[in-house]
């Protein structure tokens, strides 16, 4: 998430398992582990967690991020930063409904779809 913060900006916070309300039961061995992170910027909030019960996380049941940017320039900027060590899946192009859209896989193997409604550039 610190990598995503450098790409997207915003304020990053971490919540450990021991900070979770008591109504959620987790083994004591997990107390110091991070439950979730939250990245907040003016235009979005991105929450993430990879904490799971033993043997439940397998490649393929992870998430794909979709980020709706305000401008074409913001799409290009975020795309460039996320591509450090990643690969383009779909080149940045205008869609049939005149939006800008790209897809990529970042250095951690996470998929991103980044888009914005055309803003004249």
UniProtKB/TrEMBL annotation:
Designated name of the protein: VOC family protein
Gene3D superfamilies cross-referenced by the UniProt entry: 2,3-Dihydroxybiphenyl 1,2-Dioxygenase, domain 1
Superkingdom, taxonomy of origin: Bacteria
Organism listed in the record: Chryseotalea sanaruensis
Cited InterPro entries: Glyas_Bleomycin-R_OHBP_Dase
SUPFAM superfamilies cross-referenced by the UniProt entry: Glyoxalase/Bleomycin resistance protein/Dihydroxybiphenyl dioxygenase
């Amino acid at each position: 998430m610190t990598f995503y913060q450098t790409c997207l900006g915003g304020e990053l916070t971490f919540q450990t398992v021991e900070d979770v309300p008591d109504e959620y039961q987790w083994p004591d061995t997990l107390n110091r582990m991070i439950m979730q992170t939250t990245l907040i910027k003016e235009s979005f909030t991105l929450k993430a967690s990879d904490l799971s019960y033993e043997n439940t996380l397998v490649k393929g049941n992870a998430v794909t991020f979709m980020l709706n940017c305000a401008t074409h320039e913001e799409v290009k900027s975020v795309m460039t930063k996320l591509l450090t060590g990643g690969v383009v899946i779909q080149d940045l192009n205008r869609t049939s409904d005149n939006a800008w859209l790209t897809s990529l896989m970042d250095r951690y193997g996470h998929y991103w779809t980044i888009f914005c409604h055309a803003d004249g550039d």
